[in-house]
Amino acid sequence: MLWIVLFIALFAGAALGVIYVVRSFHRFSFMQRLAWVIKKLSKKELSRDITGAAAIVITAVYMGIGWFLAHHVFVTEYSFTTHKPLKNGSLRVVEIADLHLGITLDGKDFERELEKAQAADPDVVVIAGDFVDDDSYKADMIDACAALGKLKTKYGVYFIYGNHDKGYSNYRDFTTEDLDRELEKNGIVILEDESVLIDDSFYITGRQDRSEETRSGGRADMKELTKELDSSKYDIVLDHQPNDYAAEAEAGADLVLSGHTHGGHIFPAGYIGLWIGANDRVYGTEKRDNTTFVVTSGISGWAIPFKTGTKSEIVIIDITQE
Fold it and tell me: pTM to 2 decimals?
């Protein structure tokens, strides 16, 4: 419901903004200076037709940049340290979230983008939710799962569900069970409120998505989920929605990886979500006590194939033992 209200407000605002810009563009101070320069050079008055055309061109450029930022996948790198022991003294993690398969990338496109992840020579790859969507096709889903299965890593690929992965309707041509089978067939480990100890060195804890609180009755409390873990070992928590920071920091997680916000996607939607308390962070990193949080803007986005004020990305995280 929040997203529906936001989209209605954004589209209404955009429509009114375009009308205002086209009607009033000639009165903007920078446009008046430009008009003065053109007038001096051409010795003619600048008509409203020209200013209106300039408004349309600037809008087209803005939308073109938004299209590029949504469709071009950047690589973002972070480096963190820990006092906890790691095998060989370091760990390289690749995080991918919010593919929403079919919005800007189909299965084959996703396979090509994974070359960037493979080039990083990751120790482990994590998929932090919203891998597929209601509009995704089974053929693309199969291709995308197979692409993940081809990745060469030291410790494998780990997956958590986002709020869209299990679907909000019944019009896509595959089920959640079909998705499970394809992931598992390709060696991807699905984590649903559970932790795995990898190489006796570090944990990956995968949380059920917050949407399960209304979809199927809830998810495990963070303290309950991690109470049996060896606190001397590094713990990476995967939580699709970045909105339980206080509990995750109190539980002693070392690194929490999220997506969901798309980095704000269409400005200022992400910051409205932050303001109303839907999320603890929109994008980037934050430190609370001994816990580091990372929110990625995602490799794609939901519903709208444009990004303004953010970008599509794959995240590479290097963790080094002090």
Answer: 0.85
Residue closest to 96 by CA, chosen among 141, 138, 157, 176:
157
What amino acid is encoded at 179 in this protein?
L
- Preceding amide of 122 cis, omega within 30: no
CA dihedral 277, 283, 284, 287 (to 10 degrees): 0
The string of pLDDT tens digits covering residues 232-270 is 999 999 999 999 999 999 999 999 999 999 998 888 777
Do the Cβ atoms of 315 and 113 come closer than 8 Å? no
Which distant-in-sequence residues (6+ apart) come within 8 Å of 64 by Cβ? Answer: none
Q: Look at residues 51, 4, 47 and name the one whose alpha carbon lies nearest to residue 23.
A: 51
Gap between the Cα atoms of 64 and 58, Å rounded: 10
Tokens of 147: 């692409």
Tokens of 56: 């349309």
Distance CA 39, CA 5 (A): 45
DSSP-assigned states of every residue in 138-198 = HHHHHHHHHHHHT---SS-EEEE--TTTT-SSS-SSS-HHHHHHHHHHTTPEE-SSEEEEE
Q: What is the pLDDT of residues 155-188, one digit of tens each?
A: 999 999 999 999 887 789 999 999 999 999 999 9
How far is residue 96's CA from residue 131's CA, in Å, rounded to a whole number?
9
Cα→Cα distances 164→234, 259, 262, 300, 301, Å: 29, 12, 13, 13, 12
**231 in Cβ contact with 291 (< 8 Å):** no
